[in-house]
Amino acid sequence: MQRDVFRKTDAGHAEIRSRSLGFDARTRGLLILINGELTVAELAARVGFDPTEMLVRFVGAGLVERVASAAPKLRPAPPPPAPAVAKPPAGAPTAPAPPAELMPTDAAAAGGAAR
């Protein structure tokens, strides 16, 4: 029942206006909160007590009606882990050294350029 959603009927709205049934503040406060959107669990969190027994009385008196049972609220899935960086296995061959013609000359490597 914790995921059920209730709404006031015309009689429930009339009771809010007229106060003819003489509900105490706690009971009346619960009836006021019933809006067709909050689940029983959400109502309980707001009023600070389990409203199940009062809801059964409200339904019996024709003040509220059950409109839905809300689907459980799911948490979003965590993001997938980042892919691991592949490391070559130990002892794997490495890339060959570049050809000598692509290597810098001694003068360029020493920081002096020929003019």
Account of the 3D structure:
The protein has 115 residues and is an alpha+beta fold. It has a domain at 4-69. It has 5 helices and 2 strands. The chain has helices at 10-18, 25-33, 40-47, 52-60, 106-109, and strands spanning 4-8, 64-69. A two-stranded antiparallel ribbon has the order 1-2. The longest helix is centred in the N-terminal third of the chain and has 9 residues, at 10-18.
Radius of gyration: 36 Å
Low-pLDDT ranges: none
Mean pLDDT: 83
Largest sheet: 2 strands, antiparallel
Structure class: alpha+beta
What percent of residues adopt helix (DSSP H or I)? Answer: 25-40%
List the main descriptive attributes of the protein structure presented here.
115 residues, 34% helix, 10% strand, alpha+beta, 2 strands, two-stranded antiparallel sheet, single chain, 5 helices
Summarize this entry quickly.
The chain has 115 residues and is of the alpha+beta class. It is built from five helices and two strands.
SSE blueprint:
Elements lengths: L3 E5 L1 H9 L6 H9 L6 H8 L4 H9 L3 E6 L36 H4 L6
